[in-house]
Amino acid sequence: MNSLQPISGASGRSEPAPVDVDASASPARDEPRLSPLVVGNWKMNGAATALTEAAALAGLIARSRGRVQIGLCVSATLVHRLAHALNAAGVMVGGQDCHPEPDGAFTGDVSAELLADAGAKLVIVGHSERRGAHRETDIVVRSKASAALRAGLQPLICVGESHAEHELGSGLDVVRSQVAASLPHLSAIDDPATRIAIAYEPIWSVGTGVTPTIAQIEEMHQAIRQTLIRRLGEGGRRVRILYGGSVNPDNAREILTAREVSGALVGRASLKAQDFIRVIEAAAQAVSVDRLQSTHRSGRA
User: Fold this and answer.
1) Whole-angstrom Cα distance, residue 6 to residue 15?
2) Element (H, E) at 73
3) Catalytic residue numbers?
4) Residue 205 DSSP one-character state
5) What's the pTM?
6) Which end of the chain is more exposed for a tag (fewer CB within 10 A), N or C?
C-alpha cells in the first residue's frame, strides 16, 4: 500500500493524500472478507457487579468464536478487570475515548498508552456523544486515532450526520468529509483492514423512534467505502464499516446482512449478555449468508 502523505486542504486541515484507485467496486473480488466485528459500548454504565455479565458473555461466545470478532468498550475503571476476564475468551476489551498525548498534566483524561497498559486492545474515538457534548472536531478525532495506533490499539472511528444535516440532504457529504478528515496517518507497512475500523452512527435517528431503512444504511456505507478506497488505496476495500444506530437482537440480522455492513457498534443491547450474544449470533449468521451468496456467484461465473 502506498504511504500516505499529509496535505493541507482548503480548510487548513492536514489530511491524507488521496490514492488514485477506482472506488467503484468493493471489496476486491478475489480478496476474502474479514470476519465481522461486533463491539459493545457500555457508555457510562457498569460497576464491579457488571463482571457477572462479562462472565456470562464469556460462557456464551463459544458458538461464534472464529466467525465473529467481538469487542467490549467499557469505562476506564473496568478495563483492567474485564480484560483479565475476557481477553482469554477471545473478547477484545477497549476504552471509550483516549487523550491524544501519551502522558502529561491532563487531569481526568486517559491516554491510549494507559488503556493499553490496562489490557485494552481497541478504543472508540469520535463517538457522536463526544463530538456533540465535548465539541470534538475531525482534527481532534484524527489525533486520538493516531494516539491509539501509537499505543498499539485499534481505533474505532465514529462518524455520522445530525438531524439538521439529514433533513438538508447533506448527510452523505458530511460523513464523507468526516471519514476523510478523521483518518490517521498510516505507514506503507500498515494494513488498514487490521489497524482501523469505522462506525457509522445516524445521529438523526437516535432517540427519535425513526430507524434508517436498509437502503439508507447501504447507501451511506457505500459512500464511506468509496472514501476509504480513495484515501487508503486497495487496503480501504477491506476496512470494516460497522453500523451503530440502535442495534438490538430484533433488527441485528437484517442490518448485518446489508451490503457493506461488516459489523455493529452496540449500545444498550450490549449491557446484558443474553441480548449481546443474540447480536453476535446474528453476525455469525450473516457470515454464513455471505459465504453462500459468494458460492452462488462463483458457480454462475
Assistant:
1) 5
2) strand 69-73
3) 127, 201
4) G
5) 0.88
6) C
